[in-house]
Batch of 2 targets.
Target 1
Amino acid sequence: MNSSSSTDSNNGKQIQHIVVMRHGDRIDNVEPLWISTAKRPFDPPLAEPGKVRAFCTGRKLRNNLDFPIHRIFVSPFRRCIQTASEVISGLCAVNDDPLEMTSDNIEIDPSKVKVSIEFGLCEILNREAMGLDTAPGNWGFDVSELESLLPAGTVDNSVVPVYKEMPQWEESVTEGRTRYLQVVRALADKFPSENLLFVTHGEAIGAVISSLMKDTTVYGVEYCAYTQPKRRVSFKSNGTFTAGNFEIVALLDQFGVSFCPTSQLSL
């Protein structure tokens, strides 16, 4: 697997890129009656438009990024797993037919990317975010079953997750946003020579952007919206590394994120 395309070979320095993405369109926002018969109403899958959006976003990343994605980490919620599956097909398509809008008839090269499930990327676990009065007695995430929904040959289940189980219920928004930042940083540090894609939830994008851009509040994150931080990583001969701070590298409104100066909110 190739390392980042942005490498200074003479001094052991390279740029590590990460992409933090929201999942695609969830079925309960397209079909309101879905929830009335759902066995797991807190875990809606993608609607068909969400699959199309996710696949096309993967294709867009493949065509427009000037660096490869090496590794993907994904929230265990089904809408995120399905989004990751479609994005992987868009990223890794072999002889991609531009008329295809989902992964159904797409052949991929599974050697191009590896994917792992990370509980720490899950939705913020509180009543407002989840629409639940209490947490389920058992979230019921079967990792093996979820991995089977991802493209064959891409799953790397040898990666030790940052969160080995779901976070505690009724965390605050601040606690959830802090969790997202912790997980993104920990996994970036675990794989410093690779570019990473995180498929997660809208609050994660807001957390990342607000932490990296002073006086910035995110007030809207579209389905499959994303942000692209990067940092410089320097590798030493003894195998250790040092890393600079992440910074946002592109205009956010190109990628479905709406934001404004925090100072304007009090006017």
Target 2
Amino acid sequence: MAALSIGYQIHFHFNPPNLLPLPTKFSSLSFTAKHPLRWHHIGCPKICAPPAVSVMAFGSREVLPPALDSSSEPPAIFDGTPKLYISYTCPYAQRTWIARNYKGLQEKIKLVPIDLKNRPDWYKEKVYPANKVPSLEHNNEVKGESMDLIRYINSNFEGPSLFPDDPSKREFAEEMFSHFDSFYKAVISSFKEDTVNDAIAAFDSIETALSKFVDGPFFLGTFSLVDIAYAPFIERFQPFLLDVKNFDIATGRSKLAAWIEEMNQIEAYTVTKRDPKELLESYKKRFLSQV
């Protein structure tokens, strides 16, 4: 069993909202399993009621297994243990990895990384004939396609929901899922051209989308499958556009800048991130050789 530590996301709900002076600095924050959260803050002349707090735990900092290659033996297939087949370098697979992590399924869904440059034959022959990642083995079936899988993981496993109940937010989520392909194609086209006009328009559309709901910094206000769908790709686009095209995607886009900052506070995502220098070199080899 993989070694595991537990991280916590703590959400404060102040009522009334003007109870605390702004900005408020917290000098300490602590809780145990047996006692309620204790808190102190600095600079308030009043004796304030403590905020309501919700705590969401999720597993993090796994000891990640090595990627399996053509010389590796297959895992026990269809043994009743759900398995998520990924590549550590693939943004599509990263989507499913983030969803698994955020729902706290590190002990429920086994991570099986595949070396895409030296794939084992058994993966295609015994697991997933499409021979792509990600794929998910669950209930004696193997499913693929990252957008389908993040929905499936959200709906078929325990853990916090990554899709809202609000009909307007659900409708907008579907719009953003449909928009992804045109966003991706526009950015990639700028990789291959002298101008970045297409990328500018693409990230302007993201800035507009992030302005839709005001109850949080994410696409649907709160963190959701939409953020998971876009994050691995923006993670890769940002360093390439800055280094090669001298285009900072966050400049003049305050919503996007805030979204990137908030994403980097979510451990379920940050543990899946690659070194930006590694991503940059990978994209240079992939795209500059085509110019």
